[in-house]
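Note to self: user wants both folds in one dump. Writing first protein now.
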Amino acid sequence: MKYSITISDTHLGATGFHRTQFNDFLSDILSNRIRAFDSIISIDNIKHLIILGDFFDLMMEIPAYLDNDFQEIYEQLKNIRNKGIEVTHVLGNHEISVSGDYNAKFTDRKNKLYGDLTRYQNLLGYLKEDDLCQYVLLILKNDNFMLSRCDDITEISSSSQPDTQNFLMCHGYQFLPRLILLTESKIWDEVLKITDRHIKKLIDKIWNDILKRRGEISFAEITHQTFTDSIIEDVINLHHIEESSFEEIPFIKYFDDTLSFLEYEDLDEETQEAINRSDFDNLRELISIYNMMEITFLSLLSIEGIKEKLIDDFLLKNQLNNITDVIFGHTHKADKFTTSNRIEVGNDGAWQLRKDQSPYYLIINTRGEFEYSSYC
């Protein structure tokens, strides 16, 4: 029996990444300690490790730090590859732009991303351009796997085969309603473009708190307090101010949505003396992103709602008549269900979670069965 393992949403570089557990998981693969289908899986029987997007979090971290901070993970993945296991990176929305006609533009964007990342020594030593793709087609035939990496959905349609199991794998943003994706992708693009690490880490702090506490309190309660605390802490550190005297800073009166509409020249003289133009521009950019986050938060309901109809509609629209199974990530929630068109669907969870949550992985065997398991 042969096996393929899928994982997604590790989010290297972001708050909440279960780093120790992920390292242990990779070690378990190398040491024949992975469990699935009520047995231990030997590394000799593992054919693929497929990472279904957001392995890196380029919204929350810059490539230079990703290169330096995760060398032990890259080394373990190289060791896994050296054992004969194919490692595939499906790219997610925290790694690459998905705006506009993302199928037509994917290859050019992928090539640019690969060039940007491999300017750095450790990433250059680990990443392989041919391992990056938007979709994976995994076909079961004669008790074996046939894997194809695809950049465009039309490649899936032309490569899938009748009268056998065809697994379509992708990150999952592809299943979002078009209007939601158009809106979301603009926000994601803006954050991906930011090169100032300090701003990225502030956004990381805000977003992680939203993810941790969603469903418990309202958007306004989450973002207002978290965002305000982040900015206050940033300004205190930036200007070496005693926290008790913060309220005396004159530009606090501008600290609301109106800041995003102001120019530096609109500030009064006292405020301009308290904050320079560069710091003001950074604050204004953060508040602009904060305002956009409201749309993102509301659309989390749509992300969580990637269920039967959205997947059936996607397969129908793209004429993927031979697809029998779909595996994806993106929602950070491990799941398994069957659509009304009898498509078997699995979500392999995430490795960016609260401390009290367990990450997940999913395993497929050459009988065409799959199951997800928590890694405790």
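First done. Writing the second protein, which came from a different request thread.
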Amino acid sequence: MEILVGTRDGLWVEKGEGFARLSPGGWAVTDVVMMDGDVLVGRRGGDPVRLKNNEWTTLDLPQVTAWGYHRETPDMVWAGSVPAALWVSRDNGMSWEECKGVYGLEGYDSWWVVEPPHSPAVLDIDFSPRSAGTVYAAVEDAGILRTRDGGKRWRQLEGGIYSTVHTLIAHPRERGVVFAATESGFFRTDDGGFYWHRLVDGIRRLHLVPAILLPGRTRDGDVLLTAGAIAPEVFWNQPEGARCIVYRSDDWGESWYAVSKGLGIDLEEMITAFASTGDAVIAGSSGGHLWESKDRGESWEMIGKGLPFVTSLAVLPAG
């Protein structure tokens, strides 16, 4: 298994022989994706880049904060930026089309966040490979946007969901089912985003950041994982830290329980990213640690430490 680790000080790689820096130092990586042997990297304060044949090239895009990609649709990749905007490539990232319909949404010019430069970012993008024309994008403090025609027209979804969504998961098998980890708990829609159910039974840390779905053959086999902190990131450096707890749900978020074996509970550092291949799950933290679970999140083993603040993960199975 090959693991790519995006951090606030560069991109790192692990191939079973320890972690090595893959990028120049100083890159504050926002998101990373592996696609068809290439690597796309978003960077805070810089243009996104592509690693192909061991060479880095700059992409003709603004500052990318989120990618959207599935190996089942290898030619299609989405990019979200700060200020909030969206692009799509239908040729494996070689050319990009700007989704100008986003700018016509009511209230777009008034989207604003407290932190400088006060421009909201796209925090996550996802879609189901079975319905690749329907795409969901989470925009900081503006909720979720949806297109059903491949990016031409967009709609801002409301229906009771919190305005800052950190992670979106479009169910790969069930049309219209989307999960969302927000700053006020976990949400699910069963109708494509018209109405959202807030699902926090068992969750004591409501500031949720990462989430991941481990799909089974049926709904009963699906597993969800998320991680929550007691407060936003600005407070994680306080003496009590993030007090992070990782949660698992076996019923589409209707109920949750804490998983701590090999991981601990009330962690000072925050679990900030998940990635998976098969039943194996990798978790990365703000403290630069990595853990692996081989049983769908029930138990964990530390596999890396000493890295910078982990912002994103991508994995490829061995072979």
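Dump finished. Worth passing along: The chain has a mean pLDDT of 94.
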